[in-house]
Amino acid sequence: MASIKTLKICPKGHRFYKSSDCPSCPICENEQRPETGFLSLLSAPARRALVNAGITSLNQLTTYTPKQVLAFHGVGPSTIPILREALAQQNLDFKA
After folding, report:
1. Which of 54, 58, 52 is closest to 36 using CA atoms?
2. Are residues 4 and 49 in the same domain?
3. Could you give the CA distance from residue 50 to residue 61 in angstroms, rounded to a whole number?
4. In terms of domains, do 23 and 5 share one?
5. What is the Cα–Cα distance from 95 to 84, expressed in whole angstroms?
6. What does the alpha-carbon distance between residue 63 and residue 1 come to, in Å, rounded to a whole number?
7. What is the per-residue pLDDT across 79-90, written as a single tens digit (0 to 9) for each?
8. 4 burial via Cβ count (<10 Å: 0-12, 13-18, 19+)
9. Three-state SS across 57-79?
10. Does the pTM of the predicted model rise above 0.90?
11. What local confidence, expressed as pLDDT, does residue 48 receive?
12. Are residues 81 and 91 in the same domain?
């Protein structure tokens, strides 16, 4: 079954098509993507999931286990190795 894409317009006036009910605007997402730091390494859904959980620094990430992070909507298995590497570069790790 083919998904039907619907034209949507975000509050900033960007026009985009989506087949899901997700209201996030891909144009706004690209504008908000950080250029540096561990959040810049992540996909938009994973980045949104961490920010929505209040995780904006690696130190905050150390209070979570990988299993807890995977439970966030938008975080998939490929995100954990990226986060683990970012943590290791700062001599940090996930909560045991």
Report:
1. 58
2. no
3. 9
4. yes
5. 11
6. 42
7. 999 999 999 999
8. exposed
9. CHHHHCCCCHHHHHCCCCCCCCH
10. no
11. 87
12. yes
**Same domain? 18 vs 58:** no
Same domain, residue pair 24 and 56? no
The pLDDT value given to residue 1: 57
- Give the residue numbers spanning the domain of 11: 1-32
Q: pLDDT tens digits for 19-43?
A: 877 777 788 877 777 888 999 999 9
Q: What is the amino acid identity at position 15?
A: R
Residues listed for the chain: 96
Does 88 lie in the same domain as 57?
yes
Regarding whether 46 and 83 lie in a shared domain, the answer is yes
Mean pLDDT of the chain: 90
